[in-house]
């Protein structure tokens, strides 16, 4: 699929990895539906950059993806605003340390609702509209830890493992018109507040002995959208080798 003139919805687009993905899509000529939750000022800045630097249309959509009604409203609002959506990037996510014995239902739900239920309901609404239109691409931003879970982040890892199952199931359900693929980032941008020692340990455990960048994820997403239309249900690790370590 060529992105030129197409409409792409990126969730959690205002900052960090989502921002890099949104900018890469705009650079390739896409019009952008930029979803954000709390980062309104950053989202506005990004929309200005998309319009100013690339001359592309950018519209902002606020939604709490933990709220399933808000997810459905988001899908409807984007479809109403642009008429069609050609690309959906499920990027927004909650990532909190949740040690066994210290995890309550609220924190479990926050991860599963935002990281798994929201991509399902967005993909259901937008994926079916894409199928009806005859083309579409969904990129699910998962995590290598969905395959190799961390002990202290069980709800997050379970949500990402579920997202990988959803990725495969949607690839079948939305074929042949829509291709659905996952990117599995490794350490591309450490959580804010990670100290020097934690950073060093992450690099040490990564075969390529460095961190990646949000642009590495953006390039993988671009490949899955523009590089080939014969890839679906795939999982592309962008993890410096963590999955095979
Ligand atoms: N960073 C990494 O090294 C890394 C590694 C592996 C996987 N990943 C995956 O890559 C993706 C992006 O990573 P990241 O580090 O950029 O993510 P992040 O900064 O942790 O979160 C991305 C965005 O998710 C949005 N979000 C959180 N809760 C939400 C809610 N209830 N409703 C709506 N939006 C919500 C936030 O939007 P607002 O700011 O607007 O509130 C946030 O900016 C995620 O799916 C992550 O799991 C990242």
Topology (SSEs and partners):
Blueprint: E1 7-10, H1 16-27, E2 31-36, H2 40-54, E3 58-62, H3 68-82, E4 87-90, H4 105-133, E5 136-141, H5 154-173, E6 178-185, H6 196-204, H7 214-227, E7 235-238
Number of structurally distinct domains? 1
Range of strand content: 15-25%
Query: Could you spell the SSE succession in H and E letters?
Result: EHEHEHEHEHEHHE
Largest sheet: 7 strands, parallel
* CATH topology group: Rossmann fold
Mean pLDDT: 98
Query: Distance between termini?
Result: 34 Å
**Gyration radius, rounded:** 17 Å
Strand count: 7
Query: What is the count of DSSP helices, taking H or I runs of 4+ residues?
Result: 7
CATH architecture: 3-Layer(aba) Sandwich
Overall body shape: globular
Low-confidence stretches: none
Bin the helical content: 40-55%
**Alpha-beta content class:** alpha/beta
| CATH C-level category | Alpha Beta
Quick one: CATH superfamily? NAD(P)-binding Rossmann-like Domain
Main sheet: which strands, in order across? 3-2-1-4-5-6-7
Q: Which small-molecule species are bound to the chains here?
A: NADP nicotinamide-adenine-dinucleotide phosphate
């Amino acid at each position: 699929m060529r992105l030129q003139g197409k409409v792409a919805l990126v969730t959690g687009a205002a900052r960090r990895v989502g921002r890099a993905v949104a900018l890469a899509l705009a650079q390739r000529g896409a019009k952008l539906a930029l979803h954000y939750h709390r980062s309104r000022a950053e989202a506005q800045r990004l929309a200005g950059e998309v319009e100013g630097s690339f001359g592309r249309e950018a519209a902002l959509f606020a939604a709490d993806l933990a709220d399933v009604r808000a997810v459905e409203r988001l899908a409807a609002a984007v479809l109403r605003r642009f008429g069609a959506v050609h690309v959906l990037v499920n990027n927004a996510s909650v990532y909190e340390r949740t040690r066994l014995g210290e995890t309550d239902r609220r924190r479990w739900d926050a991860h599963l609702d935002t990281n798994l239920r929201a991509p399902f309901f967005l993909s259901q609404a937008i994926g079916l509209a894409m199928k009806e239109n005859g083309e579409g691409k969904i990129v699910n931003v998962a995590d290598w830890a969905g395959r190799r879970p961390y002990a202290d982040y069980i709800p997050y890892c379970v949500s990402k493992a579920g997202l990988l199952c959803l990725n495969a199931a949607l690839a079948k359900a939305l074929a042949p018109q829509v291709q659905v693929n996952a990117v599995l980032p490794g350490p591309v941008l450490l959580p804010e507040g990670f100290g020097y020692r934690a950073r060093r340990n992450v690099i040490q455990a990564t075969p390529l002995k460095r961190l990646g960048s949000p642009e590495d994820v953006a390039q993988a997403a671009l490949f899955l959208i523009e590089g080939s239309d014969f890839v679906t249900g795939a999982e592309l690790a962008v993890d410096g080798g963590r999955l095979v370590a």
